[in-house]
Amino acid sequence: MEWEAQRTTLAATKELAAALMTIRQENIQQENDFEIRISGLSEKAAGVRSTMTELSGKNQQYKNAAKYLIAFNQYLPIKQELEKQLPFRKAKYARLHEGELAAFDHAAAQLEKLGVNTNVDPEKVLTLVKEQDGKGSELTAALKETTAKIDALRQAQRIVKEIYQQPKEPQEKRKERENQEL
């Protein structure tokens, strides 16, 4: 029973120490500073989420552009060979390579729709996608850090409210209790 009480006291002490550390790190001076700081961090988190969404959309466009550029470059020799064929052999060549030519036309149409120049190197686009993925990972880490700060501030705020809401024992009783403990 005594061991359980010590364990509970230790947990409460650790929780209080964590709250005090958060208060110190976030430079909380007054009770209303909690809400101000939480609000600011929430706005920051919303901004990071917005940036992540925007980055994700752009990255998807880059991935699509790279995919279509690869297809375009892969089937370009077949399209060029079709153009070189004599008129009476063109139809036969087109039937023979119907799938590749359809893939080429689709890729060319999608690149035009995306506004991508067909001379762009797909490897450069793929490198850009990797860089954007790295930025996305950094933003995810920043969001987790900000969310953790918000959670720590809310926990510290809860502890401070609990302390202030505890009934205050009269000073005479406190002195008697302290004298008895000595």
Could you walk me through the main structural features you see in this protein, from its secondary elements to its overall organization?
The mean pLDDT is 86. It is built from 6 helices and no strands. The longest helix has 53 residues. The two termini are 23 Å apart. It is mostly helical. Helix content is 87%, strand content 0%. Helix 2 runs antiparallel to helix 5.
Features:
87% helix, 182 residues, mainly alpha, single chain
Sequence-ordered SSE layout with sheet pairings:
Elements: H1 2-25, H2 32-84, H3 87-96, H4 98-114, H5 122-165, H6 171-181
Helix pairs in contact: 1-5, 2-4, 2-5
Tell me the major beta sheet.
Answer: none
Mean pLDDT: 86
DSSP helix count? 6
Head-to-tail CA distance between termini: 23 Å
Briefly note the structural class of the backbone. Answer: mainly alpha
How many beta-strand elements? 0
Low-pLDDT parts are none
Radius of gyration: 33 Å
- N-to-C SSE string, H for helix and E for strand: HHHHHH
Anisotropy-based shape = rod-shaped
Task: Indicate the proportion of strand residues.
Answer: under 5%
Helix content: over 70%
Give a brief description.
Helix content is 87%, strand content 0%. By secondary structure, the protein is mainly alpha-helical.
